[in-house]
């Protein structure tokens, strides 16, 4: 079931495009891109979420990530 968001699709897509542009302009390979994005998520959780909520939010994020990964053969 899709989750509703308080943010418009257009806003999400605009920010996503900007992040992709930064990674591409740095010619970051997939592993480096994932490392940078993972560090960004960790930093956001550690600096913006109350300590008592961090593990739960990280688990929720990880579960959402797992649910969004496709199993198709496309590369």
TrEMBL record:
Q: Which InterPro entries match?
A: UPF0352, YejL_sf
Q: Name one Pfam family in it.
A: DUF1414
User: According to its UniProt record, which protein family does this protein belong to?
Assistant: Belongs to the UPF0352 family.
Q: Which NCBIfam families match?
A: PRK13689.1
What is the protein name stated in its UniProt record? UPF0352 protein B1H58_13955
**Organism, per UniProt?**
Pantoea alhagi
Q: Give the source lineage, highest ranks first.
A: Bacteria, Pseudomonadati, Pseudomonadota, Gammaproteobacteria, Enterobacterales
